Amino acid sequence: MNDANRNGGIEFGTPKKVAPQPKLEFEEIEVGEVQSDGSAGPSKLARKLNNVFGVLLVALALASAIPAGSNVPIFWAFWSGMLFVMLAAHVAIMARIEPDRVLQVTRPRHRLAPLLCGVYLLWVLFQTLPIGLAAGLPGGGTPSSISVMADASLLGAIRQLGYLALFVLALEVAGRNDRVEFMTRLLFWGICLHALWAMVALRILGDIHWWGEKTAYQGVATGTFINRNNFAAFLGVGVVLGTAIVADLVNVPRVRKAGSTRNPRASLVEILVPVVGIALLIVTILATQSRMGLAAAFLGSVTVLGIMRVRQGRRAVLAAAEAFLVVVLVAMPLFALSGAGVLERSLDIGDEQNGRLVLWQQVLGMIGERPITGFGLDSFYPAFELFHRPPLTTALVWDYAHNSYLSLWLEAGILFGSLPIIAGAVLIWRSAVRAWQARTHFAVSAAGVGVGVLMLISSAVDFPLEIQANMFLFLLVMAIASADRRRRMDED
Predict the structure, then answer these.
(1) 473 occurs within a structural domain
(2) Integer Cα distance of 351 and 354 in angstroms
(3) Is residue 306 part of a domain?
């Protein structure tokens, strides 16, 4: 027994010099449940399961862009089938691990958007029934169902069910901040790989598709897509995600583990690496020569930076101005180097713009013919051919309205066709609320708002969300941006 113990814990004599104690530091730890036999408890198993499914969802979203954006019916069915199996497997396994677990999609704050889409889907199926409610068509024909192509509408309904399955599953795996941030980074770098392939195919391999010679949009980057504008929208999502990642690294200190000498702020190298990825994406968008793709990516990035600056205490007007200036300063050198094609197209928009205006006028006329019932999901092409008139050129096949809002109203009617639009607005609002209310880890939610802005703008003059790969990407980002996060570290 030493002297201190013999004297009741008080040591007499010359006091010893005490080394200065380090400042108190905190470390986040995960508290997982452990069974009596030493095996992992339900929470830890659920966490591992959701980690796996989170990576699978990211891989599916990125892979779906490879076969021409999956804009082919066989791929609609393939990816939807995979999502049905994944969702069923996740629910079944989770039911055994945590029988009392409640699906996120059943919670009040997450019900509205899926419910609206479910009502829309029921109407799409109703349109295919042979019940004789269809109005007559030009030339005297009257189809047996509301949809002028019932088989195509049924196949499209499978695609829509796949979207719903992806959203429900993404909500389930988005319950942890670390997982959501990891998924966001995987998506960003995966989109960068798509951009890299696009530039290699354009500049080095002689402007080809991976499946063979290009027959459209020669001389511009299209990557694994057919249409340059849809590819630009895909890349724009990457720009918005990258902007959120960089803003988070610059503005938010990391949690430093006890005893670590690592700087709690991100290093310059850590910040510059995603900046290089963003530069690659912007250069590739410029190579697509998509004017709206560039503008939408610009506005989406400004939105993200503005939200991040407001969360730092800036006034909204000042935050928006700063965000605009930062994006301009980053983009202008790249535009000066690679933006000649976009500039030339911007100076010569007369014929193309007039063509779209005439197209939209004729589509509005079709909507007026069936404002309530519509013509059926995926029935635009055959229905439009019945109404297609000069001065709109007949030398081209118009299989899209080049305005997704008009397409929805034409196919499902104004009432039911507005439901997916409202559902998208709800998801953007949910992401904005979470970006505003969350104390930490709000960058991903800010990115969700930016991606929503990007797609809202792009959809007004084109059809990015009518391409399955883009819809997968959009829904995955919106789900992880709007999902609730667990507050306890032993939850998933």
Answers:
(1) yes
(2) 5
(3) yes
Q: In whole angstroms, what is the distance from residue 447 CA to residue 424 CA? A: 15
Token duo for residue 411: 């196919």
Residues 6+ apart with CB under 8 A from 216: 226
User: How far is the C-alpha of 79 from the C-alpha of 472, rounded, in Å?
Assistant: 10
Angle at 245 between CA 286 and CA 306, to 5 degrees: 80
Query: Residue 396: pLDDT above 50?
Result: yes
Pair 491, 50: CB distance under 8 Å? no
Q: Which amino acid is at 290?
A: S
pLDDT digits (tens, 9 = 90+) for 205-250: 999 988 888 888 999 999 999 999 999 999 999 999 999 999 999 8
DSSP structure class, residue 464: G
Main-chain dihedrals φ then ψ at residue 217, nearest 5 degrees = 60, 40
Supply 252's token pair.
């938010």
Q: What is the pLDDT of residues 121-132, one digit of tens each?
A: 999 999 999 987
| Omega before 382 within 30 of 0, i.e. cis | no
Q: How much is the pLDDT for 101?
A: 85
pTM to 2 decimal places:
0.86
The pLDDT score that the predictor gives to residue 334 is: 66
Q: What is the rounded average pLDDT for all residues in the chain?
A: 84
Query: Residue 281 in contact with residue 191, Cβ under 8 Å?
Result: yes
> Beta partners for 34?
40
Distances (CA, A) of 383 to 145, 269, 285, 362: 13, 55, 33, 12
How far apart, in whole angstroms, are the C-alpha atoms of residue 114 and residue 151?
A: 24
Report the amino acid identity of residue 55.
Answer: V
Q: CA–CA separation, 225 vs 75, rounded Å? A: 14
Give the number of domains in the chain.
1
pLDDT-derived band at 172, boundaries 50, 70, 90: very high
- Domain contains 381: yes
| Rounded mean pLDDT, 287-315 | 89
Question: How is the chain split among helix, strand and coil, in percent rounded to 5?
Answer: 65, 0, 35
Q: Specify the length of the chain in residues.
A: 492
Q: Cβ contacts of residue 377 below 8 Å, gap of 6+?
A: 124, 127, 147, 152, 153, 156, 157, 160, 411, 412
- What number of CA atoms fall less than 13 Å from residue 252's CA on the CB side? 17
458 in a structural domain? yes
If DSSP codes are grouped into helix, strand and coil, which group holds residue 375?
A: coil
- Whole domain around residue 350: which residue ranges? 42-254+262-482
